[in-house]
Amino acid sequence: MKVLLTTLNSKFIHSSLALRYLRAFCQDKPWHLKLREFTINHSLYSITGEIYKENPHIVAFSCYIWNIAETMQVARRIGQVMKDTIIILGGPEVSYDSCSLMEQYDFIDFIVRGEGEETFRELLEHIVEGKGLPEDIPGITYRSDGSINKNHDRDLIGNLGRIPFPYDFEHGLENRIVYYEASRGCPFQCRYCLSSTIKGVRFFPLQRVKEDLDRLIGMGVKQIKFVDRTFNCSSSFSREIFSHLIKKGGDTNFHFEISADLLDRELLELIGTARPGLFQFEVGVQTTNPLVLKEIRRQSKQEALFQNIRKISEGRNIHQHLDLIAGLPGEDMASFANSFNDVLSLEPDMLQLGFLKLLKGSGIRERAAEYGYVFTQEPPYEVLGSNWMDFGDLRRLKLVEEVFEYFYNSHSFDYTLKFILSGFSTGPFDFFKNLSEYWEDRGLHLLKHGRRELYSLFYEYCQHQLGKPRAIINELLKLDFLMTERSLTLPSQISRVQIPNFKQRCFDFLCKPENIEAYLSGYTGLSPKQISKLVHFEVFDPCISEYVPGLGEKGRQSEITVLFDYRYGDRLRRKARIKSVEI
Q1: Partner of 185 for a Cys bridge, out of 128, 201, 580, 581, CB 3.0 to 4.6 A?
Q2: pLDDT digits (tens, 9 = 90+) for 366-382
């Protein structure tokens, strides 16, 4: 009997950990289990056709808020064209209201609720081997004699070491994000999160985790994202893993969700020794308003949180991704602006402006009426209004998010933004709000924009809206552009300084061994022609020395030639290293 495990990932580079757990937990059985992954960007007709071609007796779908709508359409079609095929659903999006879903969708035969490994195995033993009765399987909802039955919940797996390594016999993971977990559960009880419904944290055996990670590194995986809700909730456990990965080396990047306020001095010193790009941290700040934090039961020691984030930033070896959530109970626009300004003062590598989702089963959804929440009835159940923010407020924040992604999170405008924000007296939030209004007034929010076009648009904004000096803006935008792209042509409206025989003078510079030793020591042994393909020279107005440390003395009157080194630059932000040189 053929069993097809399938899901619709949000992107091709993603991989489903849940399906691999199910397959691994049944690997000792002589069943024909096959795993097929699609994306929500595939046509539903094509997905249905691929499943039909597999001709499975059982199809098991993994369901989440990002794929549930498309999954239901595919599952319905499978039920229509493959009437004898048994359809099983599992995952967080179907676990909470399984009975109502089965009432609404008559093509669903079984729903596996909650943690699925043991439940799915027992269910297949019943269907494939005829073992036992469905009423004796904890954690399932099923049909029987025209009625819908919901069995009692299954106890959580106590010994996670029983779950085999999920990536056995895998190929082609080098170009995909691989998800991994070292623990399940969360020590916190945030009202907006489903993890708060499960008490306690369980850990996989430490040695097993180390061995798993070594295997993935050996498979050439480029990025491993830990799905642990709070990876560092146990200092001793996380210290062992961090230390192991630092010693292991390699080119793999590891992404962790952490609570930065829980990092002690020893852990901070340890991660400070990691090579640049080995780790990246996601830190859920959510809000800096203490009353809002209390309302959502978010435990956070803000002083320690900010102090540790700054400490990590000083090391310049770890990419930090900080999160804020718009729409939390008790947070109006003024409060959100304060939170935004507080977090941006930490100069994170990325600041994500998320919008509250009222997830099924979450504490905040249960109090939706009390908070005056209006939210989308279809997934992802995103907030549309509340007692503190109306739809107009949230719409404005969506536009702020758009321009913030373009101009801050891209790190394509760092020097220009620093100059502008230093003179924007009402704070960074007001600046991005102002930029979003300019953006909307010109209909730019309705269009897609190429990277070069953004430089021209930002130039126009700085000139026409802010009235900034043309020369300074031109030079800073030119510098920002060339730091992230080696190009002989500049964006429109950005001009360059021309000097006689510049190209030949640059080549002559590269022909002198003393220049290579002084400025490009990593290129020793390469010919001038080879080096010229990895670097760039550009002439700048001397005004730039006032705003970019290290590029000439302040007050300089003559032009400044800047050498851009693209091979040995900032690995975290993928920027060139810059030095002023004499040509």
Answers
A1: 201
A2: 999 999 999 999 999 99
Q: Residues 495-503: contacts with CB within 8 Å, 24+ apart?
A: 496/538, 496/539, 497/539, 497/540, 497/541, 497/559, 498/539, 499/539, 499/559, 502/537, 502/539, 502/583
Under 8 Å between Cβ of 124 and 58: yes
**Burial state string for 419-438 with b = 16 or more CB within 10 A and e = fewer than 16:** bbeeeeeebbbebbbbbbeb
Count of alpha carbons within 13 angstroms of residue 58, beta-carbon side: 22
CA distance 297 to 190: 5
> Domain boundary at 353, 388, 423, which?
388
Which H or E run includes 383?
strand 383-385
Chain length of the chain: 583
Q: Is the residue at 439 inside a domain?
A: yes
- Which of 110, 127, 150 is the last residue before a domain boundary? 150
* Preceding peptide of 380 cis, ω within 30°: yes
Whether 314 contacts 348, CB under 8 Å? no
Model confidence pTM above 0.70 = yes
Domain co-membership, 189 together with 288: yes
In a domain, 68, yes or no: yes
